[in-house]
Design a protein that fits this description.
The chain has 11 helices and 11 strands. The protein is an alpha/beta fold. The longest helix has 23 residues. The chain is globular and about 50 Å long. The chain starts with a helix and ends with a helix.
């Protein structure tokens, strides 16, 4: 009887281990949403969150770039920051308000300067304002970051403009309302759509793969969401929980 129980226990362990190993076979790449901010001394879109994400060994760091009233480029989600609406406030006014970790909100230039001194990773820049595209690309060129950049936007016009001006970079649409075929017609590289959108659109994931396009989901933060992402074998998982992703994927 004891030997049977032992064999049964080993069999169960083999099944469970085998199931978990499926996620470790995935090619899905880890992108830290606004950096690795859910840890002591950090907050989203800060230099600390960038440093933490790179120290963790992520494939890429996602961050948001928005324009102030005087056309300065700020790394911030927006549309509000503190008590100010970013598009109606000057850069100087915005910089007077500290982040939750007491950092000054970084300009895009300062963010790139931090990237320059840190080990390299891919930079997933979300463009908030279509009119800022040329200035962003100019700064990317100044820092010679062209090969490290991936661009994302909810704005179709911003995506098209970026792809026209920087055709060798990957450009992904975020809004969730265009099919892979429609994105291909726009010469875009694929989509990064919300988990809730893609959960019910496995046909889009399959079609993107057929077309040779890339795909990603956000935000995928819970264990079940991350397992779905890994088992679906999306190109990118954009997550606020990079530690759990690494644990599940073995990356």
């Amino acid at each position: 009887m004891d030997s049977r129980l032992t064999l049964y226990t080993l069999f169960l362990l083999w099944i469970l281990t085998g199931c978990e190993s499926i996620y470790m076979m995935s090619d899905c790449k880890l992108v830290a949403h606004r950096g690795y901010w859910d840890t002591e001394g950090s907050c989203d879109n800060s230099i600390a969150s960038l440093e933490n994400a790179i120290a963790l060994g992520v494939y890429g760091v996602e961050f948001d770039v928005i324009q102030s009233a005087d056309d300065s480029l700020l790394v911030c989600h927006g549309p509000d920051y503190g008590h100010l609406e970013i598009k109606e406030a000057s850069f100087v006014e915005l910089r007077k308000i500290k982040l939750e970790n007491n950092e000054t909100p970084p300009s895009l230039r300062e963010y790139f300067q931090a990237c320059k001194r840190l080990p390299p990773c891919m930079l997933f820049l979300e463009v908030k304002d279509p009119e800022s595209v040329e200035e962003i690309l100019s700064l990317v060129n100044e820092f010679s970051f062209q090969e490290r950049m991936v661009y994302l936007s909810f704005s179709k016009s911003a995506c098209i403009n970026i792809k026209t001006l920087s055709p060798t970079n990957e450009v992904f649409y975020l809004n969730g309302d265009l099919s892979p075929d429609e994105l291909q017609e726009l010469n875009l590289d694929g989509f990064v759509y919300s988990y809730l959108t893609l959960r019910d659109r496995h046909d889009w994931i399959k079609r993107a793969r057929t077309l040779g396009m890339k795909s990603g989901a956000y935000p995928v933060d819970t264990k079940s969401q991350l397992k779905w992402c890994l088992s679906t074998n999306l190109t990118y998982a954009v997550t606020d929980n990079p530690v759990l992703f690494k644990k599940l994927s073995g990356q």
